[in-house]
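User: Need the bound-state model for iron/sulfur cluster:
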Amino acid sequence: MSRRNKTKQPNRDTVTFTEKDFLPTTRADMDARGWDYCDVILVSGDAYIDSPFIGIAMVGRMLEKLGYKVGMIGQPDIKSPDDIMRLGEPKVYWGVSGGSVDSMVSNYTATKKFRNSDDYTPGGKNTKRPDRALSVYCNLIRQHFKNTVPLVLGGIEASLRRVTHYDYWSNKLRKPILFDSKADVLVYGMGETAIEQLTSAIAKGEDYKNIRGICYISKEANEDYHQLPSHAECLEEKEKYIDLFDLFYDNNDPIAANGLCQAVDSRYLIQNPPGEHLNEDAMDANSDLPFTRELHPHHAKEGKVKCLETIKFSIMTHQGCWGECNFCAIGVHQGRTIRTRSEGNILKEANDFNKYKDYKGIISDVGGPTANMYGYECNKKEKLGTCAHQRCVDATHLCQSMKPDHSRNINLLRQVREVPGVRKAFVASGVRYDLITADKEHGYAYLKEMVKHHISGQMKVAPEHTQQHVLELMGKPGKQTLVDFKKLYDKLNEEEGKKQFLTYYLIAAHPGCTDKDMHELKDFTTNELQMNPEQAQVFTPTPGTYSAVMYYTEMNPKTREKIFVEKDTKRKEKQKQIVVKKESYASGFAS
Ligand code: SF4
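Assistant: Bound-state model below.
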């Protein structure tokens, strides 16, 4: 333990959690609370992990605080009625989520091989999450509860598949998930305000069709909303699908967006404008909910869940990301405006870790979707919402209205280090190095702070590629920014007398990328970076992303020009092998 913290011994009255500290997941849990029924039953593709990092646990705790009786069924057995029926039928609705990751992304690799492991399943074996979990769970509920209360979809699988979308695993455009799953309503995005309003409306028997942040199916079009190309038009013409995605992507901001309407067969998918973002007080209030940060004991007998190794003692400082990497769905799901928690609330959470017996003073992560977006935003965006035809950052520029300022983040990290009991607080979330080099006033100090205190031997960065035309399709910064950053990183390590490395995340077979591009990338990593990349992955076309649109249409969505797209599985793997092949190079300092 550091000298500093020797004088700041924490109060170590530790706690042990039992079933009563969780939301009920068995009939015995309900009996212990004296409940005959639940108002809402949440069903998820993950085991019940009671953590603020797990969306469905957050929804459950929010509703509990509002006074609803909430039950939770994690990973129900789909071949038997036992799990889905064990809490009875809810009075208000069923909330159904595929889990923390889209079930197809979770179950299959980029080359469509089945994944054997699952970080959200007790014991770690991938045996509990069905493909297309939302539709499977909705069928399971309807099979065992005829004419039941509404089925409400939520979570990332629902959010990214809410309009016509490209599905890599069936290699086709699929209808909005409400049509496939036959659920009644869908809450998209983070959904905090929508969930609260929707639950209240359904419980009171009120009309919920005007609530922001939801989708539903209607017999009539909504003429006031933007009209998306119909599902049939998208199937017929690839450019129509790009038109659809442009409108979908640009109407995702609570301040700037209009609603959307899409004809699907003889009915319409209606998407109301997004729900309001939470302010700092509301973000803090949600973080204060009484999470146990544990797996429910009902599951624990089957083993541990791997995800808790990283999330149990991690702190989420903010939501949202405006990085707009085209292969990533976070901006679409969480929104492109940063919502921060207050410093006091974050420090309180760090202090609360002391009540856990297994806390060793190590915070695994103090971060968010992009760690160094904490604490500043574009003033214009905060007033008028995200810009429809302009990006805050892309491969060639940072918008002048966005002024990266790491000062608040630096102060936060300094204060976290001072919390009693903290021996080390890592920043393991991704960092945008282009924002560090762009922040002339505090970027250097931030990186210094990171190098000195917050990385464990290596810092992970995600250039993803080095070829400009590929980077532009990815929406990532140019390679010169990486070179500048590396110089700064090496210099700081030298000053601090540390030998810490950079680990580079790279993507093979992204739309636009050829074998030749991978050879050029390999030359760069060997000669400029003097390293052999290990963290290279084959591109996965995730639903709800521009890169998936490129993969399907084989066009640059911006220019509508044709682009090369590697679609052969073996050749994709070959692209990866080009860059991970071991090469010898003159040994250099730090990376
Ligand atoms: S003005 Fe620039 S930084 Fe602000 S939202 Fe628009 S693109 Fe982003």
